[in-house]
Design brief:
The protein has two domains: about 1-135, no CATH class; about 160-420, Spore Coat Polysaccharide Biosynthesis Protein SpsA, Chain A (Alpha-Beta Complex), CATH 3.90.550.10. The protein has helices spanning about 1-5, 10-35, 40-65, 75-105, 110-135, 185-195, 215-225, 240-250, 265-275, 300-315, 335-340, 350-360, 385-405, and strands at about 160, 170-175, 200-210, 230-235, 255-260, 285, 295, 330, 365-370, 370, 415-420. About 50% of the residues lie in helices and about 10% in strands.
């Protein structure tokens, strides 16, 4: 009995419930003491708001951490899972308020013990109903997806069509660079050494985003040392999105990967992308949050925001892929042509490109990748400035998906087919 009670899922459930309760208390404190909801009506309103938000928080905590799996389709979450969870949690509360508390109070049980018993019983009811009713495992599959905050993910194959001529002869790498004198040389040299060693035909196109330091002169020297490394100055206004768009208008290869100048992306993963793309996929997307993926020195607040943003996108689009916001991805030339014109000026381009490729029916595979925080220089991403821009791109593509009637989708004509599987399918 004790072994069953103390299994990992129950422990996670209890910890998740404690976190949701803490959220509830913080919200009540914020609403009443900070925002001064002081009248009886406003205090009741504050209580209702805090209960509902903490209930939603507990739902997603349990979905991500305890019962990892099931459908993330928007309509399934909104119209089925959330209502059922409200029933489960509401039933537990009603049993506690209408049965447990009055019964123990009639038996003259002290308030403290009464509360503890009531909480334990209602938590048990909530757990059983959630396990059997809300987060019921799909009987047709032993696989749960997506794991989201976990670093394990298995994906079911998805069928896509490909053309007969899918060989990549020349690989292009576009690297946007703004004031990267401290790291651009080492980043480029690590990549060229590896690609030369693998005898892969390539070009590296660095887009100098009007740097004010010594970046341009270093790029000139890199080109003199290796003609396969070239650079252009960004002819658009300054900005990450503009710089990448400038590079995408000037690369010459059969496929292009977007790579960061700060050496945060592992050169070995470029090879993983290249060889996976040779299997016939239109795109290959790396994830730092699947089995084999890794992040090093990721700032905690950025990690939390990243996972919340990616979870929001997963739910909105019903995706199994869980790292849309990372720029480091690879696309065939025809995909770049199919998703243009691009509209993002800034880092929201990292969301626009893969989402637009998915919405427009291009095939993709996911592979685990490694990311490490930059050791030199200054990050150009300002989260406080990007929230509304990310949301604009996500909502515009959601509208395209549901309202455009496929006007912008790639038209599939080739008979050949390939399965979309990640590198870790055999794990």
């Amino acid at each position: 009995m004790f072994k069953k009670f103390f299994n990992p899922k129950v422990i996670k459930f209890l910890l998740g419930g404690a976190l949701a309760a803490a959220i509830n208390l913080l919200l009540i404190y914020w609403l009443i003491d900070i925002l001064h909801f002081n009248t009886p009506f406003l205090r009741n309103l504050a209580n209702l708001i805090s209960i509902e938000i903490s209930l939603l928080a507990s739902f997603f905590i349990y979905r991500i951490w305890v019962w990892t799996g099931g459908s993330w389709q928007f309509k399934d979450v909104l119209l089925k899972q959330l209502p059922l969870y409200h029933v489960a949690a509401g039933s537990a509360v009603l049993v506690r308020v209408l049965l447990i508390f009055p019964a123990l109070d009639w038996l003259k049980v002290g308030y403290t013990l009464n509360t503890l018993v009531g909480v334990a019983v209602s938590a048990s009811i909530n757990y059983l109903l959630s396990d059997r009713l809300v987060f019921k495992k799909n009987q047709d599959s032993d696989i749960y997806r997506p794991e989201s905050l976990e670093t394990v993910l298995s994906q079911e194959p998805r069928l896509h069509y490909i053309s007969d001529n899918y060989h990549i002869d020349c690989l292009s790498l576009v690297i946007p660079a703004y004031n990267e004198e401290s790291c651009i040389v080492s980043t480029v040299e690590l990549i060229t050494d590896l690609l030369d060693q693998e005898k892969i035909k390539y070009e590296i196109l660095v887009v100098n985003d009007n740097s004010k330091d010594n970046t341009e002169s270093l790029l000139q020297q890199l080109h003199r040392d290796n003609p396969k490394v070239r650079y252009i100055n960004n002819y658009y206004p300054n900005g990450f999105g503009f710089a990448v768009r400038c590079g995408l208008e000037n690369f010459t290869g059969d496929a292009v990967a977007i790579v960061m100048a700060d050496n945060s992306d592992s050169p070995q993963n470029i090879l993983d992308y290249y060889y996976k793309l040779q299997e016939g996929y239109d795109c290959v997307f790396g994830s730092r949050f699947i089995r084999g993926g890794k992040v090093v020195d990721y700032p905690t607040y950025k990690l939390i925001i990243n996972r919340m943003a990616n979870l929001f996108i997963q739910v909105m689009f019903g995706l199994p892929f869980n790292d849309i916001t990372n720029a480091f991805k690879i696309y065939r030339r025809e995909v770049i042509e199919g998703i243009t014109p691009l509209i993002s000026h800034h880092f929201n381009l990292t969301v626009e490109m893969p989402l637009k490729a998915i919405v427009r029916n291009y095939s993709y595979a996911s592979v685990p990748i490694t990311w490490q925080n930059r050791k030199t220089g200054i990050s150009k991403l300002k989260l406080s400035e990007m929230g509304s821009r990310y949301l604009f791109v996500v909502l515009s593509l959601w509208l395209e998906k549901h309202l455009s009637r496929g006007d912008y989708q790639r038209k599939i004509a080739a008979p050949a087919m390939v399965y979309n599987k990640s590198l870790n399918d055999n794990d």
